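Methods, example record. To illustrate the input and output format used throughout this study, we show the complete record for Chromosome partitioning protein. The sequence lines were provided to the predictor; the line carrying structure tokens was produced by it.
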Amino acid sequence: MSKVIAVANQKGGVGKTTTSVNLAASLHAVKRSVLLIDMDPQGNATTGVGLDKHNPIASLSDVLLGDVKIDSAIQRIGDTRMSAISGGPDLTVAEVHLMNMDEREYRLESALRTVRNDFDYVIIDCPPSLNMLTVNALVAADSVLIPMQCEYYAMEGLSALIRTIETIREAANPDLHITGLLRTMYDPRSNLARDVSRELLEVFKDKVYNTAIPRNVRLAEAPSHGMPALMYDQKSRGALAYLALAAEILRKEASRKVAA
Ligand code: ADP
Ligand code: MG
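The corresponding predicted structure is encoded as:
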């Protein structure tokens, strides 16, 4: 059974794309087959794995609008066994068209149904808003991974996201759950980061991943070379942190299976 994880937080710059790309690469590194879906008009996950966001053969936007079958939009990343569906500026246009379509919240879910079991993991990089694209991602997903920076306003947007997740659970996707909150760009020397982290753990308890992603310049540099940190500098702290996250996700899943 494949797992579809939406990486979501309507705040920009919290590490959604960095997490999507590097978690996908880390799961691939431990021999899982992975499909990365770029749901963001900025197309940063697309370029982050070395694909062209302006001139794809077929993009996610074509899939959502029903112009192409999802199979023909799946592109192999380099010579890896990772695949991706590219996003980019045409998703903004697609979002407007979606508004007038039937079953508009279900476009991604129904397209994915035919291919999701070809992969162990499908990772969806969401845009920085709670718009129809994010709704499509949350309807298609089994779970939501929420990256967040441990700073002053971090908790503020969280309640709106959680309300959205609850609405979608009630209306369209009863099994949707938060798989975890991920502390990104984490600096344990900062008092504020430690305080916010403590608060987060008090409120969300074991929903917070043990793994926190440190601020690491290699994670910021890798996208300009069109590759995940694991390919750019596999010994970097950033790359190793995302490998640890992948291991934690696999462990959690194994223990859930035993418990079930
Ligand atoms: P989002 O997708 O939520 O908007 P990004 O993943 O694009 O966020 O991250 C925002 C910026 O921060 C990018 O320039 C990215 O390279 C950088 N960044 C993200 N995570 C880290 C990290 N752990 N260490 C250093 N820079 C990071
Ligand atoms: Mg992004």
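Annotations derived from this record:
The pocket of adenosine-5'-diphosphate (ligand 1) is lined by residues 12-18, 44, 128, 184-185, 213, 215-216, 219-220, 238 (CB under 6 Å).
The chain has one domain: 3-259.
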